[in-house]
């Protein structure tokens, strides 16, 4: 887990600028949490989707903790695999786009289930769907997809670790304000901006040297209009399903 702290202390300095919560995704997360009274946010980062009932955030990177807004829940520097809470300490625990960073995913999920009395909510993605449907990794940056192959936990396995969980697709709006990997699917020029890439761990950790040839092809295709012609139908859509999944487990 030390790698995660070093990584986000390095790449996370401007994270809050490009990773602002999207209200539509927030509404889906909060609906999944339901009527719980106190929530633990694990791998909390800057606290983008924490509901008002959040009582504690767990985050290993001090750089990320420093970007939490005034009035946010208190945060402790700790890791998912060893949560500093007693059994059944909170109504619900949530972990949003963080499981792939954990050094021991099974241990982290056990800890979520240990400290939550009623519910665990996890936002992740289906790597097979992501590879197939997201044009950026399919057509331009297969190296990034290969990096994700090494860290993405299959949704079936994650649901099994949760003891069974319902799965909700999380559509990505065309104007998504949270700049995660597929957020700019209808705004391809964004991926040419190093500030945007810095907020996407998939791209930041793969590295610009590896991504440079694919990004150059993307720039050429945008200038020539080839990208727009190839993706004309995509440009008519308001939202797409590229594999993001919300898993909800009742304990």
Describe this structure in words.
The protein has 251 residues and is of the alpha/beta class. It has a single domain, classed as Vaccinia Virus protein VP39 (Rossmann fold, 3-Layer(aba) Sandwich), CATH 3.40.50. It is 40% helix and 17% strand. Strand 2, helix 4 and strand 3 form a beta-alpha-beta unit.
Structural class: alpha/beta
Q: What general outline do the C-alpha atoms trace?
A: globular
**Distance between the ends:** 26 Å
- Which stretches are low in confidence, meaning pLDDT under 50 for 5 or more residues running? 1-6
Strands in their spatial order, largest beta sheet: 3-2-1-4-5-9-6
Gyration radius over CA? 18 Å
Helicity, as a percent range: 40-55%
Q: Return the CATH topology.
A: Rossmann fold
Q: SSE order in H/E notation?
A: HHHEEHEEHEHHHHEEHHHHEE
Mean pLDDT: 93
Major beta sheet summary: 7 strands, mixed
What would you say about this model in short?
This protein is of the alpha/beta class and 251 residues long. It is built from 13 helices and 9 strands.
Search tags:
single chain; 251 residues; alpha/beta; Rossmann fold; seven-stranded mixed beta sheet; two-stranded antiparallel sheet; 13 helices; 9 strands; disordered N terminus
């Amino acid at each position: 887990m030390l790698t995660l702290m070093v990584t986000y202390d390095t790449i996370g300095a401007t994270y809050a600028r490009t990773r602002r919560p999207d209200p539509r995704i927030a509404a889906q997360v909060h609906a999944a949490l339901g009527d719980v009274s106190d929530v633990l946010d694990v791998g909390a980062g800057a606290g983008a989707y924490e509901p008002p009932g959040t009582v504690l955030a767990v985050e290993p990177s001090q750089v990320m903790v420093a970007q939490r807004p005034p009035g946010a829940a208190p945060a402790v520097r700790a890791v998912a695999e060893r949560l500093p809470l007693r059994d059944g300490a909170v109504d619900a625990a949530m972990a949003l786009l963080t499981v792939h960073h954990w050094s021991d995913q099974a241990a982290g999920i056990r800890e979520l289930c240990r400290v939550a009395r009623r519910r665990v909510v996890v936002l992740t993605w289906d790597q097979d769907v992501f590879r197939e449907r997201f044009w950026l990794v399919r057509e331009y940056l297969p190296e990034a997809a290969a990096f994700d192959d090494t860290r993405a936990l299959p949704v079936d396995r994650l649901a099994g670790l949760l003891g069974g969980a319902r799965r909700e697709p999380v559509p990505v709006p065309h104007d998504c304000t949270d700049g995660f990997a597929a957020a700019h699917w209808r705004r391809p020029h964004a991926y040419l901006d190093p500030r945007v890439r810095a907020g996407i761990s998939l791209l930041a950790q793969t590295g610009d040297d590896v991504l440079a040839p694919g990004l150059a092809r993307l720039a050429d295709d945008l200038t020539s209009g080839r990208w727009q012609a190839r993706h004309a139908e995509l440009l008519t859509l308001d939202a797409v399903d590229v594999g993001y999944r919300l898993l909800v487990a009742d304990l």
